[in-house]
Amino acid sequence: MNCKKLPVGAWIACCAAVLVLVSLIVYAINIGSEGYFQGASISNLVLFLILAIVCELVAVVLGQLEQKGAVGKVLDLIAGACRIVAPALIALCLINLIAARVEGLGFIYFSNADVAKEVQTPANLSSATGSIAAMVCLGVSMLAAIVAAFVNVRKKEA
Question: For residues 156 and 143, what is the distance between their CA atoms, to the nearest angstrom?
């Protein structure tokens, strides 16, 4: 497989996979750092993000295989399913992350003046910023995966 001859859709899908990996790293840093969200991992988020990366890459690889007949149609169906499943998994992770963090973010940023002095420590503010960064990264990677789902990953036949 020659990387220079990959179609635009394959490049976008690969970029989406890299963005999901970056989102995963930002999330891991957020739950590993000191602060309010330290150790507050979300069930199955890492698994779903890894599955999304795998789906994006499987769609690219299957799009490059040249098969005719029934096998080709089955591969096209699998690649199409992967292109749909990847953004859905990323969206699910984003929704779960927002749902898990919204109460803590509200507590950190919108507490009354008496509580805010105790809650708005540098570690907690850094942790909140890391959560927001993870949400933004997931949102951008979800948009890239959605765009990749609508752009052709199959190389043009001569």
Answer: 25
